[in-house]
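Handout, section 4.2: multi-component inputs.
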Amino acid sequence: MERPPETTHGLRSYLIGFVLAVVLSAIPFWLVYTHALPPQRTLLVIGIAAVLQVLVHLRFFLHINFTTTPRENVLALVFTALLLFIMVGGSFWIMFDLHNRMML
Amino acid sequence: MSIAHMSEHEREEIETHEQRALGFWLYLMGDAVIFALLFATYAIMIPGTDGGPTGKQLFDLNNAAIETGLLLVSSMTFGFASLQVKAGNRGAVLAWLATTFVLGAAFVFLEVREFAGMIEQGAGPDRSGFLSAFFTLVGTHGVHVTMGLIWIVVLGAQVALKGLTMPVASRLHRLGLFWHFLDIAWVGIFSIVYLPGLL
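Output:
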């Protein structure tokens, strides 16, 4: 009778998401604890792990996918990602350029 | 009431639920924009310490790791609550909501303690541009989590008093979106604020 919001996502989804998120958090924390890699490499790993973990959360906790998620929601998400790219990327571009010019 | 009427009514409720879920999703996307701009501001302000303390001197890796763990486990326990909503198990929903609340409250406690400690040693938001940006970004997230805790209490009361009716389940679904979203924002915070700060 009842038709809950999502019927296709069970316990498995949350457990897989949790394990992946733990691994993707543990790796960057471990690198910072141990200084096992040079700082630049560590930063790169932190960045990659963060992007992957955001995707894991979207997929396994928020259940975003391209089949059952309503089209509008996915569109809103993609549009937001575009906005973030323009606004954050643009801010960095302008501010770091300004910074360089002021220093030189 | 005829069966046809009931199903009509149910269909309407489902439609309402889906519309509200979309509306709430749009709000979350707006919130994501706010967080992204606070992240950008923070990243730009990192060098602006005005001779005051830097992240390396102020941040505590253990504290950040525990906060990360608390929020991540709370995301999973909320997921368990959502599963019990589908199963129609009122007692289990309340138990998992309570667990989520305790984990979230512990997170807020650690964050407030961190803030208080920093302010005590003269590293409050008024010390430098860097610290203003830090308190704004991390504080905004903390306020969100606190609102989430209040929301958990309110919906917990509704589950207890009204049961797992369609509107209550629909509200729990949106609270779930909110709670999981906050964990995503936290991934950004430990990856941009704490880990690079302590490198």
